[in-house]
Amino acid sequence: MPRWTTLCLALVLFCCFSPAWAAPCASYLDQKIGYRLLFQPDGTVQEYNKDGVVQAVHQYYRAGQSVWLRNYETGYGQQYQFVGNGKQLKKSDSSWGDTIYIQQQRNSCPSLQKLGYLTKPECSYGKEKECCAAGDSNACVADAQSSANIPILQQQCRTQPQACLGLLELYDKAANKRDNPFSGMYAEKKPLPAAQLDEIADSCSRFKTPDLCRKAVQQLWRAQRFSQSAQLFETLCKANLDEHACARHKQLISLQFPKALASATTLPCGEYLSTVSALSGTMVFKDRGMVTISLGSQLRARLEDGLIKLRHDKGGDFVFARLSDTILLGMDDWNNFEVYRRESAPQQVCQAPIIYKEEPLSSNCGLDKDPAVCCQAGDTQGCNRLGSMAALANNWKEAALQYAKVCEKGVRVGCENWIYTVGKTGDEGVEAGLKKLCAKDDHHVACDLLETDRVTQAMLGYELEKMLKETKTEQPAKKP
Fold first, then answer.
1. What is d(CA 51, CA 258) in angstroms, rounded to the nearest whole number?
2. Which domain holds residue 304?
3. What share of the chain is helix, strand, coil (3-state, %, to 5)?
4. Is 417 domain-assigned?
5. Do the beta carbons of residue 310 and residue 299 sit within 8 Å?
6. H helices then E strands: how many in the chain?
7. For range 37-44, the mean pLDDT
8. pLDDT digits over 49-68, tens only?
9. Strand-pair partners of 341
């Protein structure tokens, strides 16, 4: 038989009898929304949005006309089917319907038998040990995380980003363990120890998955490792893991970061601007610590722990570190990675801020104690708990009465909660009560909240909600 005939026969046999589980190494496009799946030779799939940013990384396994994808970071699984002569992938969803991905480009990939466990359903809650023993590595991670087994997670983190995320969650909980369970969800976060920071940063460089890398760079920034944050943003930029990563990297490498920032000793003065996805594009620092942000909102700045803090209406602070007289760095979760610059010096020196008298909310009335008994004994945490319980029951008048008791004792959160009830009741008596407290002592925290127009903002919210309800009531019913 001629050699060319033998070669042709071999090619025909390969095409016709290649294993049904051969890997679908290609790029597939959802033409409706522009999402793209890119299958790689290492058994992973990058899922890109229409802007070319990686939304997720999956592991995959093919058997016959089915392909199983499981999210590399969350463990969530999804089955796809080959249709249209193998040039289309169909994802079925009972809620959203079918999604068809069209093959754009085909490559050569090996089959990865070790990922065969992906064909099995996701492990049921409480069955992680059994699933792990059966070879489901995602279940092994879930089991180690639920038992807080850090040594096992550290070992798994060498090969699975899901384990690294579980490890980071445990590290973060340990670093930010709250002595007071009522400290609020917006309490400032503490940085991780140096060794843990290095471990998480290395895992991002190793796997290059979006959620892990975003959280890794957030931890570095929180620890004021600014130069290392800039380097990690370069990794995110090159791997297309975040839409702002390239702009962040370009902005940060233009700055000179010292080994340790000097503590801020005075408040800024003048107008500071940010250009990359800022929560507030402009901040104007004025006399007595007053700061104007977007839509004319007024906040009060203060110095604390060498940082500049602006109290917001969620019970926490916008936090800034001073890099220089003209550059501020956003440090809180709302302003992470933001760089605010002052382009020109202010026309006059800002007056020093007023120091208001503030008392901390007590921590003597835990969940094991009756808040009514605590409040009757004068404990502010007990009264605040009673107010929160009334608010949850939609009894805003009772909530206002309890919060007022906390505010009277100079506890800021009590005054803030009292003002919050205005947005639900429209009660003008709250403002009158705050003015009464301020008249007795012009350094009472109530004076600060009055000057920053917090009551006015709450009343505007109430009026807007009232108007929307009235408009909805007046609308004629649609004819059947």
1. 35
2. 270-341
3. 40, 20, 40
4. yes
5. yes
6. 17, 16
7. 88
8. 999 999 999 988 888 888 88
9. 273, 327
Residues 275 and 310 in one domain: yes
- Asked if pLDDT for residue 349 goes beyond 70, the answer is yes
Evaluate whether residue 332 is within a structural domain.
yes
Tokens coding 157? 């983190």
The tokens for 316 are: 């926490």
Q: Are residues 242 and 277 in the same domain?
A: no
Q: Is residue 355 part of a domain?
A: no
Looking up residue 107, the CATH number of its domain turns out to be 2.40.128.290
- Distance separating alpha carbons of residues 226 and 385, to the nearest angstrom: 39
Percent of the chain with pLDDT over 70: 87
DSSP 84: T
Closest CA to 411 of 451, 440, 448, 377: 448
Q: Which amino acid is located at 468 in the chain?
A: L
Amino acid (1-letter code) at residue 30: D
Residue 436, domain CATH? 1.25.40
- This prediction's pTM: 0.82
Whether residues 243 and 208 share a domain: the answer is yes
Helix (H) or strand (E) run with residue 476 in it: none
Q: Which residues of 137-176 are buried (b: 16+ CB within 10 A; e: fewer)?
A: bbbbbbbbbeeeeeebbeebbeebbbbbbbbbebbbeeee
| Residues 163-213 pLDDT 10s | 999 999 999 999 988 655 545 555 678 999 999 999 999 999 999 999 999
Rounded to a whole number of angstroms, the distance between the first and last alpha carbons of the chain is 78
Is residue 34 over pLDDT 50?
yes
Q: What is the pLDDT of residues 13-25, one digit of tens each?
A: 333 333 434 556 7
In a domain, 406, yes or no: yes
